């Protein structure tokens, strides 16, 4: 499929993990892709590896308004427009409530919620005049509550409310806004969770696969496939939704 020929796609936190897998899928479907991440060399390395018609890697801390402004400006300069924004950048600072620091709380809110807000606000400046755009936000099954993740689950449920509000505001301008809530996806983020739980990553994956209705854990490609559908014109009557891509695990 070549659904993204002529489109410019920006994926935040795309140097690795789900973001990199998603950037790859859009590149495979013909998009010009901007890979944004904290570290410029990591972002550029991923961008170069996509084999896209055109790709750039840019340093951007999504929680920093000035950095976001610079990065979106650079994307439009180098790739010509911004048609699709995937707000994927994320971190965890897990702890039980009584041990959770103010920094743990603020960092998680700033990356997930403020980051999605700043990036979307900047991107819509280009999407609204074009009367075209797709914004996709990464929520999580943890939005439904997860022990040790009060900060992260609050942010990820916040992402769902943010998604619905943007869908209402931006729909009249031809912009669709949706969210994906992944279940357990094998990335460095879930490997770090294993370390916190004092387990080998393979052991945590095995336990999650056993407990999952489809008896496997997810891969970045599972999220990328859903992202490529939700941001396509085939999904133009879908907006304000959160799609759980979790093998049915939340049921
Ligand atoms: P990851 O840790 O492998 O990758 C996250 C990327 O975001 C890294 O490259 C990191 O440098 C970047 N990043 C962090 N802070 C940033 C900032 N301030 N500005 C720009 N980039 C920043 O994580 P993974 O697993 O790929 O997660 C991607 C998204 O999916 C996150 O929003 C995460 O919360 C969400 N998610 C992941 C799940 C999983 O099982 N892996 C499950 C549910 C949601």
Descriptive report:
There is one protein chain. By secondary structure, the protein is an alpha/beta fold. The protein folds into two domains: 8-183 and 219-245, Rossmann fold; 186-217, no CATH class. Helices cover 47% and strands 15% of the residues. The protein is built from eight helices and seven strands. The protein has helices spanning 17-28, 40-49, 65-79, 102-130, 150-170, 188-196, 201-211, 220-230; strands spanning 8-12, 32-37, 55-59, 84-87, 133-138, 175-182, 242-245. The protein has a seven-stranded parallel beta sheet with strand order 3-2-1-4-5-6-7, sandwiched between helices. Helix 5 links the parallel strand 5 and strand 6. The longest helix has 29 residues, at 102-130. 48% of the residues are buried. Bound molecules: 1,4-dihydronicotinamide adenine dinucleotide (NAI). 1,4-dihydronicotinamide adenine dinucleotide binds at residues 12-13, 15-19, 37-38, 60-63, 88-91, 111, 115, 138, 140, 182, 184-185, 187-190.
Keywords:
47% helix; Rossmann fold; 7 strands; alpha/beta; 251 residues; binds 1,4-dihydronicotinamide adenine dinucleotide; 7-stranded parallel sheet
């Amino acid at each position: 499929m070549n659904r993204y020929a002529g489109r410019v796609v920006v994926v935040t936190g795309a140097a690795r993990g789900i973001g990199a897998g998603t950037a790859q899928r859009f590149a495979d479907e013909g998009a010009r892709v901007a890979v944004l991440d904290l570290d410029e060399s990591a972002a550029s390395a991923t961008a170069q590896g996509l084999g896209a018609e055109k790709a750039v890697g840019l340093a951007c801390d999504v929680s920093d308004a000035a950095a976001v402004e610079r990065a979106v400006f650079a994307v439009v300069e180098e790739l010509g427009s911004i048609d699709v924004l995937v707000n994927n950048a994320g971190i965890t600072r897990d702890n039980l409530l009584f041990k959770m620091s103010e920094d743990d709380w603020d960092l998680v809110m700033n990356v997930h919620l403020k980051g999605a807000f700043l990036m979307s606000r900047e991107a819509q400046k280009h999407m609204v005049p074009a009367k075209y755009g797709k914004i996709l936000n990464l929520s999580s099954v943890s939005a439904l509550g997860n022990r040790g993740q009060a900060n992260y689950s609050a942010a990820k449920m916040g992402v769902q409310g943010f998604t619905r509000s943007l869908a209402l505001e931006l729909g009249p301008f031809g912009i669709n806004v949706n969210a994906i809530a992944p279940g357990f996806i094998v990335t460095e983020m879930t490997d770090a969770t294993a370390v916190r739980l004092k387990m080998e990553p393979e052991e945590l994956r095995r336990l999650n696969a056993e407990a999952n209705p489809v008896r496997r854990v997810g891969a970045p490609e599972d999220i990328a496939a859903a992202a490529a559908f939700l941001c396509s014109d085939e999904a133009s009557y879908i907006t304000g939704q959160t799609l759980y891509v979790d093998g049915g695990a939340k049921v």
